[in-house]
């Protein structure tokens, strides 16, 4: 079983973790989307630059490109009216997570800039909208508020309204800023 198949269930839902007993956890968690999408986008961008003889076969590359487009469409479908993504992207009753939002938007912008996403899919506009919303969460000294805390507290803590300031969130916002330039 490929690693990606472990994180995505038969219905196409992304999870943070796959356990050895077959269970998956943190379905639709925003930072899982951020890391998955950024990893896929960054890897594809690098693979596209390789000489053809060093790249994976055409079928694998086509599969990776299709997954990049698919997961971007899923993420954009779940973007909230305020431009951010909920901590669990499919549940808009859950507070937004600025770190997950920054990472998802960074992947959308990077994918659009690299030509991995269709020009007319709205990825760049979605990323720009998220960037504008994220700026409202910056403190005067440049810290990003509204970050969901460590997932060690379990899903119940993530579904609550408690949010923190985290350098990880700031790093994801910096990636978004760079991808939009």
TrEMBL record:
Matches recorded under Pfam families: Glyco_hydro_88
Protein keywords: Hydrolase
GO terms assigned for molecular function: hydrolase activity
Keyword Hydrolase annotated: yes
InterPro entries with a match to the protein in the record: 6-hairpin_glycosidase_sf, 6hp_glycosidase-like_sf, Glyco_hydro_88, PolySaccharide_Degr_Enz
GO BP terms: carbohydrate metabolic process
Protein origin, superkingdom: Bacteria
Keyword Metal-binding among UniProt keywords: no
Name this protein carries in UniProt: Glycoside hydrolase family 88 protein
Source species of the chain: Paenibacillus sabuli
């Amino acid at each position: 079983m490929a690693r990606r198949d472990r994180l995505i269930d038969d219905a196409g839902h992304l999870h943070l973790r796959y356990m050895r007993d077959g269970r998956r956890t943190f379905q639709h968690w925003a930072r899982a989307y951020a890391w998955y999408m950024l990893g896929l986008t960054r890897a594809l961008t690098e693979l596209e630059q390789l000489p053809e003889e060093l790249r994976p076969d055409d079928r694998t590359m086509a599969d990776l490109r299709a997954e990049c487009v698919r997961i971007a469409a899923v993420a954009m479908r779940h973007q909230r009216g305020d431009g951010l993504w909920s901590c669990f992207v499919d549940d808009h009753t859950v507070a937004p997570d600025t770190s997950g939002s920054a990472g998802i938007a960074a992947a959308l912008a990077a994918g659009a800039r690299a030509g991995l996403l269709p020009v007319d899919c709205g990825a760049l506009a979605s990323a720009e909208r998220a960037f504008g919303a994220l700026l409202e969460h910056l403190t005067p000294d440049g810290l990003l508020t509204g970050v969901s805390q460590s997932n060690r507290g379990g899903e119940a803590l993530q579904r609550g309204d408690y949010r923190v300031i985290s350098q990880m969130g700031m790093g994801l916002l910096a990636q978004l800023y760079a991808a939009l330039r």
